[in-house]
Amino acid sequence: MSLSDHIKNVQIGLRQGSYTSEASVSQGIILPVLNQLGWPVFDTSVVVPEFSVANRRVDFALCHPRNKPAVFIEVKNVGLSVGADRQLFEYAFHLGVPMAILSDGQEWSFYLPGEQGRYDERRVYKIDLLERSLDEIESRLNRYLNYQKVVTGDALKSARSDYQNVSKFRVIATNLPKAWESILLEQDSLLLELLAGKVEDLCGYKPDLDLCSQFLEKLVGAGQVMKPGTKSPEKETIKVSADEDKYTTTRRTQNSERINFRFKDKDIVVKSAREAMTKLFELLASEDANFPERFASRKHGRKRRYLAKNKSELYPGRADLAEENSVEVVPGWWLGTNYSRRNIQEIIDLALEVADHQLSKKICVKVYEGQ
Description:
By secondary structure, the protein is an alpha+beta fold. Helices cover 48% and strands 16% of the residues.
């Protein structure tokens, strides 16, 4: 199997939530990639698992010469690599290892621990296997991690060259407006809550997340995404109608409208988008006991988990939200519910992607129809 074929299979597995532990990420993703890049993965003096560093262990040490680490790889569960760079840097600093890689299987971050700046500033490159093109993924993995290039030192030279290349700043400048537009389009729940909280600070009334979602949709739809060189959007251009009748309609739609969805051969009626999402998760878990674990292994929001065994993981740092906006869909698994209709539809779509393919074809749940 070629590297590209393996990456394609990994992409399928990531979308299906197949990698549910660090061990499955290591065995199913990391080691096969190393094998395709020429590393003798069965020679434990070259690819050393559980390498000891100061009474702790790094998941893999890639060595040249034998038993002398040239690259450290730290592996985490899918979606749970945030904050693990500090531990990885401690390992690398202790032994002077020049390159370090942090991966949850989906995201691969390449670091030069010996450079200057914060941890994130010493990251040379970051690859997301579900967002980058296959050619880009192959190119970068070969550039920084090919066995022969590591042995000859070319991989480290390439990484240092890329790190020092001032053109990256021009690339960053070019992509800043794209990133801002993407944030508005994605409507992450953290952004919606930040907007709602600021409105409450200004006027004393907190809008629901659906109204905030409508505002962002109108902002993007009007082309007012604040790209460099554009003027501030006119109030009348981005105004979201908040008169009493329409706002009441928004609240009524969220809390009391009847929603029909189909599960297998049965029509199910619920009273809200949140209830539709909760019911769907209950039904999917009843059909497949492993569904919650597979879904939890997928990458979720930027900092949140949609489904977790611990409520605190649903809303990190917000115990109030965890208590008020979570539901135990099956014993031991909690689902967050503080989302707009658009976010809820995204979570539902993700759940159907993870669910058994034959089953998901028999399910139709629509709580958000777009603009």
